[in-house]
Amino acid sequence: MGRLARFGVSLEDELRARFDRRNARMGYTNRSEAIRDLIRECIIEEEEWAPGAGEAVGIVSLVYDHDHLELPKNLTEAQHRRHALIVTATHVHLDAHNCLEVLILRGAAGKIKKLGEELVSRRGVKHGKLVLTTTGRKLR
């Protein structure tokens, strides 16, 4: 970690109390680390996922009914078309009909975002989420 700089933040009492409760629930021992994490998150969203930003990482989770027409086949075909982006994929049978598929993607930020959004938006996906993150190389 580089040299630290101190700065003040003014908050209404209610907002500060809510922030402190959140931090306690999450296990933060001080506000500074929580604020650093929030700032890192803003930087990742702004810089790491900008067009031409370089290599990034994404996690896609999909919950779907495997009996839904052609969905499992369509998901597999989409993954094969973009296999170079997929580091790993895990398939879990949640019950007799519902499945969870989790993919870890790595590559150009724009390509990851495009594939993740394509998979999440497929008809028949009950719930899908794309989480965009960083390789960590640019963070301290």
Low-confidence stretches: none
CATH architecture label name of the largest domain = 2-Layer Sandwich
Kindly provide the radius of gyration, computed on alpha-carbon positions and rounded to a whole number of angstroms.
19 Å
Largest sheet: 4 strands, antiparallel
> Could you say which structural class the secondary elements and strand pairing correspond to?
alpha+beta
What do these coordinates show?
39% of the residues lie in helices and 28% in strands. The protein contains four helices and four strands. The chain has helices spanning 13-26, 31-48, 71-81, 109-120, and strands at residues 55-65, 86-93, 98-108, 125-133. The protein is globular, with a radius of gyration of 19 Å. The mean pLDDT is 88.
Could you name the key traits of this structure?
four-stranded antiparallel β-sheet, Alpha-Beta Plaits, 39% helix, 2 domains, 140 residues
